[in-house]
Amino acid sequence: MRITLIGAGRVATHLATTLGVEHQIVQIFSRNLDHAKALANQVNAQAINQSEQLNQQTDLVIVAVSDQSIPAVIQSIATYLPNSLIVHTSGSTSLDTLGQIHPRVGVFYPLQTFSFEREVDWSETPLFVEASHADDLALLTVLAHSLSNRVYQYSSKQRQTLHLAAVFACNFSNYCYDMAKQIVDAEQVDFSLLFPLIVETANKVTVSDPKLMQTGPAMRGDQNILNMHSQLLAVSQREDLNKLYELMSEGIFKRHHLH
Length: 259
Hints:
Blueprint: E1 2-6, H1 10-19, E2 24-29, H2 33-43, E3 46-48, E4 60-63, H3 70-78, E5 85-88, H4 96-99, E6 105-110, E7 127-131, H5 134-145, E8 151-152, H6 156-185, H7 195-205, H8 210-213, H9 217-220, H10 223-235, H11 239-257
Parallel strand pairs: 1-2, 1-4, 2-3, 4-5, 5-6, 7-8
Antiparallel strand pairs: 6-7
Helix pairs in contact: 10-11
């Protein structure tokens, strides 16, 4: 399959390097030509930064840009790719909004967190596909199965719900790790001491209901410990962390004690 990537960020980089093993990456498009060249050199593709340079012989165009940019980007390239299937990689953008722009649109959404520094296990990464036409859905399903053992045909609403849950499971939990590091850094305590706890907590929720795995002073209703922690945060003048601590503790208590 001949594939063009729109974008040269984290998602585009992982997709291009992985898909490039079995498919031809034709072009890498980025407004920043240096970024396009850096990725294109990795996958033996042409780097471009103008819509009129797009190759119309491309079978599939993957738009891997920020969610808010997707409609405008597809609007800008659709004229130059009248027959190509154009898909985005967003968990939150509805397919319906794109169908008004281009006749062949779809979704190729990997539920994963991407960084330049780490490889991704694509075989275990859930991939969600959606398309405006049955033939295109079949094509995306086959492509997804070439990467992952976990491929799902979900609706836009299901995918948006999953994306919301992913923000809690990934983005918010990572911010909790960041807050934990701020707390120990302030007293020159080694953050790596928390690593076994972090890993075990993550492992437990993969085999059991997170509600059943909840522990801690808020779940027990241990007001003495809650007050002590609040005092420590007050002394350190971290009112922002104190507010979050109280809010999350209250939520945990209600979840386990109020019906």
